[in-house]
Design goal:
Layout (H helix, E strand, L loop, with lengths): L8 H11 L5 H5 L11 H15 L6 H11 L7 H10 L7 H29 L5 H18 L8 H17 L12 H7 L7 E6 L5 H15 L4 E5 L4 H13 L3 H6 L4 H10 L8 E4 L6 H15 L3 E5 L14 H19 L3 E6 L22 H5 L2 E6 L1 H5 L13 E9 L5 E8 L4 E4 L2 H19 L5 H4 L11 H8 L10
Parallel strand pairs: 1-5, 1-6, 2-3, 2-4, 4-5
Antiparallel strand pairs: 6-7, 7-8, 8-9
Length: 500
């Protein structure tokens, strides 16, 4: 194209000379510069020798660099001893070394972007390439380039202490007493203090334990009851299937009836009333099958930036791919995916919940309760996760109504917090209703009865002479949602169309 690649040879030589002039100069730029940053091959060779000395913690000066070049067999390619002496003779101080090093690094970054853009252009002209695959590959490559130059500065403790005190104060002022995002499950929230930013949470179970039902119930609690923006990446189920299960959950209607559409008049009225809660809820669904970690990163960033998403749910981890990268085994690929999810949670500063399958280890044991070694395909999942939870339903295995101690286990689901990096571990009792695909607090039955009584009392207070619109409003929501949400629904004149 007749253009010269971005570079500054004089600055490159100034940086090399300064590195040989002051004792600790290399430590100030070692995170900024790599040998490839130098456009002149001679400067690159000299910096490689300086890097070798720095990594072995040996002194860096003119004599040691010459000796290292001789050891590497590259002294003549670097211009010989005379050239090394000339570089140091030109520099009087290393005062501006870091500033000069950043300019050299920026020139290198510009050259990489040019090379990258040319490669993308050539691939785009090739009609045999799939445009969507090329887009994802290009976005991943661009992210890798940006990550090479991303360096988090060291922070003095004072500002971190202030941030920690602010979070403690916020938790203290909170009515719920939790500092993170509420899941809607009281005992779980007390144990975790809510889902915390930057945490990777793994929820694992054997098939048919209700993994999807749990996170969908949680998404409903958070997005509909608390108006917290939530994104669900469903690699296994279609969006419409998820929404049907959500409708069953919200409307207290048997999932079989939802599928068949065989509802009586009372059930139709209940559906029409309660479905209003789901409209305009900040719940975002993605049904992309075989989602790659690169594509996941792209979509997650966009959701956080544009929709303000505070929590991401992935159903489930083992169905994700590494996006074309080659690995020696599936275990290595899953390890890379789990590390990337933890990195993404930290980058976006939001919790990420990923479902995971368990191996058959517990099936052969007398005690069916899952343990950490049952995690499927990769031990890295256990290492990368901040919290690991297992779902265990004793009733599923015993087929009995009570356990050995005579305790009622009908509908009992134990959420076993087996690993908690920043808190306690233990068991949380939940109630599972299979026909509704719903998990609730263990004592939800008592609250439901109370709410039902409140509904009847409110309905009787409205009286027969009350306006029809008031009587048909979503009064069932009182006691289940924050007052502000109830008020928002009650004053909304533009009600969405209802299916019946």
């Amino acid at each position: 194209m007749g253009k010269v690649p971005p570079r500054d040879l004089e600055l490159e030589e100034a940086v090399i000379g300064a590195l040989m002039l002051e004792k600790d100069a290399y430590m100030n730029v070692c995170d900024t510069l790599v040998p490839e940053c130098f456009y002149d091959p001679v400067n690159k060779i000299i910096y490689e020798a300086i890097q070798d000395l720095g990594l072995s913690q040996r002194p860096i000066d003119m004599m040691t660099v010459v000796d290292q070049l001789r050891r590497n067999g590259t002294l003549e390619k670097a211009g010989g001893t005379a050239h090394i002496m000339d570089l140091t003779a030109r520099i009087y101080s290393a005062a501006h070394l870091e500033y000069h090093a950043k300019i050299v690094a920026q020139k290198y970054l510009a050259r990489r972007l040019i090379t990258y853009a040319v490669e993308v252009e050539e691939q785009a002209y090739d009609e045999s390439n799939d445009a969507f695959d090329l887009l994802q590959s290009a976005e991943g490559a661009l992210f890798d380039i940006s990550q090479m130059q991303l360096k988090r500065e060291v922070t003095q403790i004072d500002s971190v202490i202030n941030q920690a005190l602010e979070e403690i104060q916020a938790a203290q002022n909170s009515e719920t007493g939790i500092s993170g995002l509420p899941s809607g499950y009281d005992d779980l929230d007390r144990m975790t203090s809510g889902w915390q930013n930057s945490d990777l949470v793994i929820i694992a179970a054997r098939p048919a334990m209700g993994k999807t039902a749990l996170v969908l119930s949680m998404a409903k609690n958070m997005a509909i009851d608390y108006a917290i923006p939530v994104a669900v990446f469903s690699l296994e189920m279609a969006n419409v299937q998820l929404v049907k299960r959500l409708i069953s959950n919200i409307a207290d209607l048997d999932a079989t009836k939802i599928k068949s559409g065989r509802l009586n008049e009372e059930e139709k009225e209940r559906l029409n009333q309660r479905i209003r809660l789901a409209y305009s809820a900040p719940l975002y669904l993605d049904e992309t099958p075989s989602l790659s970690i690169t594509e996941m990163r792209t979509k997650a960033r966009r959701l956080v930036r544009e929709k303000g998403v505070k929590l991401i749910i992935i159903d489930y981890l083992q169905l994700m791919t590494a996006g074309g990268s080659k690995f020696g085994s599936r275990e290595q690929e899953v390890s890379m995916i789990s590390r990337s999810l933890k990195g993404l949670a930290k980058e976006l500063n939001i919790p990420i919940i990923a479902l995971s399958q368990l191996n058959r280890g517990n099936e052969s044991r007398e005690d069916k309760r899952p343990v950490l070694s049952d995690l499927r395909e990769s031990g890295a999942i256990e290492q990368d996760a901040d919290i690991v939870c297992f779902i265990h339903r004793p009733e599923y295995y015993t087929k009995a109504a009570v356990d050995a101690e005579g305790n009622d286990i009908r509908g009992l689901a134990e959420l076993i917090v087996a690993k908690h990096r920043n808190g306690a571990v233990g068991d949380v009792k939940l109630r599972f209703t299979g026909s509704l695909a719903r998990f609730e607090n263990w004592d939800a039955g008592y609250r439901a009865a109370k709410e039902s009584l409140e509904y009847v009392q409110m309905d009787s207070k409205l009286g027969a002479g009350a306006p029809e619109k008031e009587k048909s409003g979503p009064h069932f929501a009182v006691g289940m949602m924050p007052d502000s949400n109830v008020a928002e629904i009650m004053r909304d004149d533009d009600e969405p169309d209802v299916p019946f």
